[in-house]
Amino acid sequence: MFHYIIKRLLYSILILWGVVSLVFFLFTVLPGDPARMMLGQRADEKSIEVIRKDLGLDKSISMQYIKYLNDLSPVSVHVTNDPSDYFFIDSIRYSTYLKIVNISDKRILVFKRPYLRRSYQSKKNVSAIISETLPNTFILALVSIVFATILGLSLGILAAIKKDKLIDRVLIFLSATGMSVPSFFAAIIIGWLFAFVLGDFTGLNLTGNLYEIDDFGEGRYLELKNLILPAFTLGIRPLAIVTQLTRNSMLEVLSQDYIRTAKAKGLSFSRIIFKHALQNSLNPVITAVSGWFASLMAGVVFVEYIFGWKGLGYVIVDALNKYDMPVVLGCILTISLIFIVVNILVDIIYTLLDPRVRLT
Amino acid sequence: MNETTIIEVKELSISFPNGEEENHVLKNISFSISKGKCTGILGESGSGKTMTALAIMNLLPPGANITSGEILFYPSGKEALDLLRTSYRSLMPIRGNRISIIFQEPMSSLNPVHSCGRQVDEILCRHLSISSKKAKKRTLDLFREVHLQDPERTYSSYPYQLSGGQQQRVMIAMAVACKPDLLIADEPTTALDVTVQKNIISLLNDLRAKYHISLLFISHDIGVLNEVADDIIVMYQGEIVETGPISRVLTSPEHLYTKGLSACRPGLSTRLYRLPSVSGFSSITHSEINQKAVPENSCKSDQTRKQRHIAIYSAEPLLRVRDLKVDFPVSRNFFGKVVKQFTAVNNISFDLFRGETLGVVGESGCGKTTLGRSILNLIESSQGTIEYNGKQISSTGKKMWNELRKKIQIIFQDPYSSLNPRLTVGKTILEPMRVHGILSTEKERKSRMIELLNKVNLDPLYANRFPHELSGGQRQRISIARAIALEPEFIICDEAVSSLDVSIQAQVLNLLNDLKEDFGLTYIFISHDLAVVKYMSDRIMVMKDGALVEIGESDKIYQSPSDEYTKKLIESIPGS
């Protein structure tokens, strides 16, 4: 188990490196110039040159790549004596760092927090942008997945118990519908219906964030009701899938010999369902739920746009439109990290649910 | 009803809808189980014996249609109860408490994600309303009572961590936990090794005497029933064909089916030329059995057998295995290096002579299957040499093996999973011929395929059918046809008849012997069934924990085994 986690973490460094490299080189082949994006179409060549030099865009691509990795890595090499050097250690960037060793009289090895650089556009630190938006995305994803899991499990169990009865048929129909409705379409319909048509009745806003600034521009306050519509919209598909998976896997487990044994022991029906069948049928459900959770964390652009929710997806699309490479790279790294962590957690959950699962 | 009956089954009929038709699995059966006695039900697969057991528990699979009859349960000092017409809620205090059941497959009958102790605790808490602390104490007592070593450890173990025998002991502990009036044992030892089977049977006998439990013991093996049952019910195709005290049924069976059933088993004392087979019990009607007499048999004389052996063993060996060792990795360290390994086959050396049948026996996990597969290079061996016809084959390349595959074939245990479900019978047999370029045209191959089907007693019309449309015995015959299609010299039969009913088993064994004579084949016959191995083999090799215990002429080994382990194995054969 311990070996396994160490191994997975080592692999994940490789994965992150692969992701950074891929996105970095994709950016270099994109047509367009970030410097021109920043200054506008009518900017003069000279100021563009200055900006390009400032961003390091005048260096060769391989140089830029190595520099980015150097900034990103917690252990990095820097030059101390020449401020004009591309690798000069900039104490403004790294608010804190720890010198490990002097490599030569002008180079040092440094231990620091990974530096994600600053946005080309807003000049804000990318890590600050991410830590502002990530909680929004996290809460939205968490609420919708918890809603989908709890309701989906209950409906799936219900459908399995009432197999081939009317309620089972209705649930199968509804989940098939839920699976096939595109989220942007569902978002528009739900937003229009509950916030616009029934807005007075439900009291929900069409757009809004987790924290709202009050009308006088003073103080942020938590507005949980803004979460309801986007979370519900996002939960529809996972809900449909969890319902289907729970139903099918419950039906398979219920036909197993050990369920017959449980009945032969004289146990009550509910005990058989919840103590004997459920735990055995959770594996496919967990696989699906974790996958969905991770992809919801990656941001759900349409839904965020429609409900005006400032999440990670929103930020990425915005940054892509503006060639804001540091923001895009930073966000994608964060998302990859989330996927990796979720996958490791899920593997651990498998071992807790089923003693036969061994992690090697 | 009198005081001595505990269960009375009256005119019970059960059917399953099968398309338009109804499949009648039980046809108007009536019998009763006496208090304190052991009633045995004998029958082959599909005879309805398990259905009867499940009907008593009211645990029939969904879709079962009870067309008539009732099952009356007479609890001591209470009103009789029709178990078929009792609600789930009212059955709860009876199931597991007054009537309990043990199933055939202990592995799949225990919940894989709950610890064994917890599963026994559960039944105690449910019926005796005791605290979980007391339940644990009682469970540990029960584990001791069913002779589970180290009850504390078993308590916290999960089913997959135990052996089949231990799992079945846990099931038994669970079944007797509430001292039931009736215990149903549905083939409780079929999935277990002979030595384990013997122990489980004596355990059931002890518990029955101790707690005055009535026992309903279901088995396909008349030898097993002989060791437990007082009375016996013989079932055939959903009907009861004979009932009576076991001693009477064994010595003078009235019904011809019962006669045939006991004759089909190869005996330990005599060796018949051909096993009597009431050909295809499943395909003929009830009345036909009555007409078909079990054929008169002549025994193979020791004299001819000896002469044949002299001829066989004077030649050069066909296969020479030296110091063969097969290891499987158990755990690996951080860098993927194997740190612990399990030795499935440990330094085995033997010779196999052309024309002989070498039986390999041993309990499950002794490495006999691994041995067979490593000879075929289906599993890589870690050490040792194998010579075939004087040529080294253990470390040769792929090209040479392509040639060798034609000469060495294997028949697997499970005819259900070893045939590709998407290939028709004909294509299954044609495929290896095509691969190895046997016969030049497709037309010739097809006629050869039909010849082969005839050879294994299958209608050539089956060529267009898919494996799932056929019965187990028919499928095993397809596996045999596929193996002999390449005209091999040497076939490994890996538990080839273990999953078949006795009557069908007899037919397949006869077929294997016929083919051996026709084609001059050499067999390695792997089986856990000692009676079958003795019948088939010239020499026998006994294996234990991957090592060779002894090897020798089969009659000699049975009459005077030199090793303690072999002795124990032979003594465990039921009915011996």
Structural summary, described in words:
In chain A, the strands form two sheets. A three-stranded antiparallel beta sheet of chain A has the order 1-3-2. Chain A is mainly alpha-helical and 360 residues long. In chain A, α1 packs antiparallel against α14, α5 crosses α9 and α6 packs across α9. Chain A contains 14 helices and five strands. About 3% of the residues of chain B have low confidence. Chain B is 38% helix and 25% strand. Chain B has four domains: 138 residues, Rossmann fold; 79 residues, no CATH class; 44 residues, no CATH class; 269 residues, 3-Layer(aba) Sandwich (Rossmann fold). Chain B has 576 residues and is an alpha/beta fold. Chain B is globular, with a radius of gyration of 26 Å. At the A-B interface, α1, α10 and α11 of A face α4 of B.
SSE arrangement:
The complex is a heterodimer of chains A (360) and B (576).
Chain A lengths: L1 H28 L4 H6 L5 H11 L5 H12 L2 E5 L17 E6 L4 E6 L13 H36 L4 H15 L2 H15 L1 H4 L8 E3 L6 E3 L5 H27 L2 H8 L4 H29 L3 H6 L5 H10 L3 H29 L7
Antiparallel strand pairs in A: 1-3, 2-3, 4-5
Helix pairs in contact in A: 1-14, 5-6, 5-9, 5-11, 5-14, 6-9, 7-9, 9-11, 10-11, 11-14, 13-14
Chain B lengths: L4 E14 L2 E14 L3 E5 L6 H9 L7 E9 L7 E2 L5 H4 L7 E4 L3 H4 L6 H13 L3 H14 L5 H6 L7 H13 L5 E5 L7 H18 L2 E6 L2 H7 L2 E6 L2 E7 H6 L4 H9 L21 H6 L10 H12 L3 E16 L5 E16 L3 E5 L6 H8 L7 E6 L2 E2 L5 H10 E4 L13 H11 L6 H14 L16 H13 L5 E5 L7 H18 L2 E5 L3 H7 L2 E6 L2 E7 H6 L4 H8 L5
Helix pairs in contact in B: 4-5, 4-7, 5-7, 7-8, 16-17, 16-18, 17-18, 18-19
